[in-house]
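Mods, move this if it's the wrong board.
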Amino acid sequence: MTTVNTGNTESPNPLRELSAESLRAHAAETLARARGRSAALTDAVDDDDLVRQHSKLMSPLVWDLAHIGSQEELWLVRDVGGREPLRPDIDDLYDAFQHPRADRPALPLLGPAEARAYVGQVRAKAFDVLERAPLEGRRLTDAAFAFGMIAQHEQQHDETMLATHQLRRGEPVLHAPDPPPRRAGRLPAEVVVPAGAFLMGTSVEPWALDNERPAHEVHVDAFAIDTVPVTNGEFADFVEAGGYAEPRWWTVAGWDYRSRHDITAPRFWRRKPGGWRRTRFGVDEPVPADEPVVHVSFYEAEAYAAWVGRRLPTEAEWEKAARYDPATGRSTRFPWGDDEPRPEHANLGQRHLRPAVVGAYPDGASPLGVHQLIGDVWEWTSSDFTAYPGFSAFPYREYSEVFFGSDHKVLRGGSFGTDAVAIRGTFRNWDYPIRRQIFSGFRCARDLPAAGPGRR
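Not the wrong board. Structure tokens:
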């Protein structure tokens, strides 16, 4: 990946055009949507389930709920609003850096009723701050950034709580309609992305987080990328062909991880007479062949790609496939353009509790013709999580900077459990390559021969 300067541009964000009154209304609606989802995820279970740790990989749901309130109090009530602290005594309890997830059940946490009362009190004060705070003159409040940051934080924890629900045992408690059927006609297996520079990242999205900034031009060699994510049926072929038993498809680290944990299929899959079955939010069902595979680690994705003679895309390749419009040279906000996501564009916001079949969202395709880059499943890339040239930590180092390095791999695009406020063409997620409880899938890419003299 080479940073260059060719004069490419990115689309502006319409939030910059809103009046202060409209911006406040938009921030209030976005915060309210997040809180409605938090309530639905925590009200769906009884108090015993709220305080139980369903997996050592995850916090008790009640910890996530109070942590949401604690972060909102720290940033909106105390910092932006300059108000007196409500509960300074619990700051340490809900500091994610002080207490690993496995240890959180042993802490003197707020109980369900107390946690609900606390987040309600914080929200009332935060809305009062939103009504009064100037939305310019300070970077933290410019274009209501702090309110957008907190809404994104809550939605990210809502997706984490959704993953906890997937790990929960017992009868189903979450329900949603099925996603739409396939709507696209016959699609090519892959799309060729031409060589050249594009503008990666953003300098104009007012609610973009620090690791997405600044916009910078990057040259990407020509490559081909899968038109749609890898499906369950395709991945099952890898499993049935003995892919989990053959070291040559795996890196040393991946094979060691697979062997130590005796992993033989995606998480939640079980081989039964008649085919593969899975557990999905308490429902036992056949694995649908035409949905994107989900709950696979980076190592599993990498092994599959090697098996089919391909590789995972780099982060820059993924973003160019998602944002670059060859007709204009612009980097769009989303694959389909600059409009905020609508239901016909992508499977987002927990409207459905599963990925949609491939080809379900032709209206969400990128200008180059790549489908379902946003929503359905987070997509592993081959890239480590590192800073962009010119990166500056804001508003605190612990959001991104402390995670930079080779320990974490970048995921792109969001999942069916990601809210629209917490995803865009520049959004970067990251996690350990061993993670499987997250809603992660992938698509493959391959190199193209370099154009020689006289070739085009």
